[in-house]
Amino acid sequence: MASNVTYEYIRRNPDVMEYIRRADTALEALGYTEHSFAHVERAAHTAAMVLETLGYDERKVELAKIAGMMHDIGNVINRIDHAQSGAVMAFRLLDNMSMPPGEICTIISAIGNHDEHTGQPLDEVSAALIIGDKTDVRRSRVRNTDLLTFDIHDRVNYAVEYSKVSFNSDKTAIILELTIDTEISSVLEYFEIFLDRMLLCRKACGFFGLRFEMAANGSKIL
């Protein structure tokens, strides 16, 4: 059974937008980097790009985008276990929209498995969401405007001047390409806080039979 619930409908739904907004406000109070509309839309579109490139059908791509848009709403409850609480919240929202159970299962499974401490790529949508979420590192996510008070997360994100996720020419690997200002943060510091995320990306790429590669300042590092 198909559904009329689309990414654009979710993107314009006032209830979903309020949860995203309030979840980001909660994280801002805790000193986290931006997790608002810029982040969830980037996660959604990267996840969609992965599935489109690999030839998945249009509805599967749409479900990945919906999961990307909704994946962080659980932060409104607490950062701890936000993936699981977000999945439960998404279930209620999508069930009230009369989305079929099979599609709901796909989305909430992806949301519930996107955190690097507890998540696993269980299917194509969850694997694509992991890649979309964990590769979003960029200067514009940093809220702190005082460089002197940067913590390591501020420093690493602010040091990333450019980031791009793409496939290699023969579609055997997904590459995260970064340009890092090493006067602000070293590549080693990047791995110090993002190693678990990169390992989960490798698992997600492995689900598709792909390699996960990273390049920083023109040199392959993973």
Helix-strand blueprint:
Layout: H1 7-12, H2 14-29, H3 37-53, H4 58-70, H5 82-96, H6 101-112, H7 124-134, H8 152-159, E1 160-167, E2 173-180, H9 187-207, E3 211-216, E4 219-220
Parallel strand pairs: 2-3
Antiparallel strand pairs: 1-2, 3-4
Structural overview:
The chain has 222 residues and is α+β, with helices and mostly antiparallel strands. It has nine helices and four strands, in the order ααααααααββαββ. The protein starts with 6 loop residues before the first helix and ends with a strand. The mean pLDDT is 96.
Structural class: alpha+beta
Largest sheet: 4 strands, mixed
DSSP strand tally: 4
Count of helical segments? Answer: 9
What portion of residues is helical?
40-55%
Overall pLDDT, averaged?
96
Report the end-to-end length measured between terminal Cα atoms.
Answer: 42 Å
Radius of gyration (CA) equals 17 Å
Secondary-structure element order, as H and E?
HHHHHHHHEEHEE
Uncertain residue ranges: none
Q: Oligomerization state of this entry?
A: single chain
| Global shape | globular
Strand content: 5-15%
- Placed side by side, the strands forming the largest sheet appear as 1-2-3-4
Can you summarize this structure?
This protein has about 220 residues and is an alpha+beta fold. The chain is built from nine helices and four strands.
Observed structural traits:
222 residues; alpha+beta; 4-stranded mixed β-sheet; 11% strand; globular
